[in-house]
Structure formats: structure tokens, C-alpha cells
Amino acid sequence: MTTNKKPAEAKALIDNEGWLYLDVRSVEEFQAGHPAGAWNIPVMHKSPMGMTPNATFAADVARAFKKDTKLIVGCASGVRSLRACDLLAEAGFEYLANMEGGFMGARDDYGRVTPGWASSGFPVEAKAPDERTYAQLKAKPQ
Predict the structure, then answer these.
(1) How many angstroms separate the CA atoms of 50 and 52, rounded?
(2) Residue 64 CB neighbour total at 10 angstroms
(3) First CA to last CA across the chain, in angstroms?
């Protein structure tokens, strides 16, 4: 089951309950900056034709995490992460929280701002340990 969490709620789950942040943005977006401690498995890849679905997304996540792992799922604005949560729920993941506003923040249909992780002032990093990068997670044996 997926719930929606605001950045402050997501950070509290990470800090107090051991949830992990799964950043589903592209590798390039992740490398430009991400929540401190985040793991990267893109739900979409950048290509010359724009964004294309990652056909192995759910399998990649299942290779990296047990299905009872508690995951905060975030993207840039909260749209891709909502789709990622749907895919993961279909694959049997039990504890999923979509982070509203994503990393960058978003605007609703009325122009109201939903703050993201970065605009909420939460810790951000540009370099992740290899074991949290998509290249390493993708190479992990089943």
C-alpha cells in the first residue's frame, strides 16, 4: 500500500523509523544532487528521444531491496515517484511512501507550491557511495 508523505514526514520516517529513500530520477539527475543517503534506481531513463521507461525497474528494485523494506520513493516533483510506487506495489513491495513535491518541489493546478526535499532545507549530497548508485545496484546478482 502506498501513502503520500510531505518532505518533513518523509525525513521523520527516515530519521526515526529506518525508512530508506529511493530516488527514481535519472542517473544524471541523481548525480546533480539528491537527498543525503538516497539510493538511485531510475523509473525512466534519459535518451535522445526524451524520457523512456526503465523496463527492468521493478526487478532492479527487487534485486536491491527485500519486499518488506520500508521505502520513501521520490523523484523531481512527485509524478514519476507515484508511478514507481504503483509498479513496486504491483511487484509485491509492502511499505511504500510517495514523497509529495519530490526533490525539487512542484506546483498544483492552481499554482500553489508543494515544497520538495531540497527547498525544505533537508540534507543534500552530490556524491553517493558506489553501493547506492544505479550502476552498482543494477550489477548486483539476483
Answers:
(1) 6
(2) 20
(3) 24
C-alpha separations of 117 from 42, 61, 78, 131 in Å: 18, 22, 11, 22
Scored b (16 or more CB within 10 A) or e, 68-85 reads ebbbbbbbbbbebbbbbb
Residue 97 has pLDDT above 90, yes or no: yes
Span 28-66, pLDDT tens digits: 999 999 999 999 999 999 988 889 999 999 999 999 999
The answer on pLDDT for 111 being more than 90 is no
CATH (domain of 7): 3.40.250.10
Residue 141: how many CB atoms within 10 A of its CB?
Answer: 4
- Answer yes or no: is pLDDT of 1 > 80: no
User: The pTM is what?
Assistant: 0.94
* Containing structural domain, residue 121: 2-139
Q: Which of 41, 43, 61, 75 is catalytic?
A: 75
Structural domains counted in the chain:
1
What is the arithmetic mean of pLDDT over 105-119?
Answer: 88
Active-site residue flag, 85: no
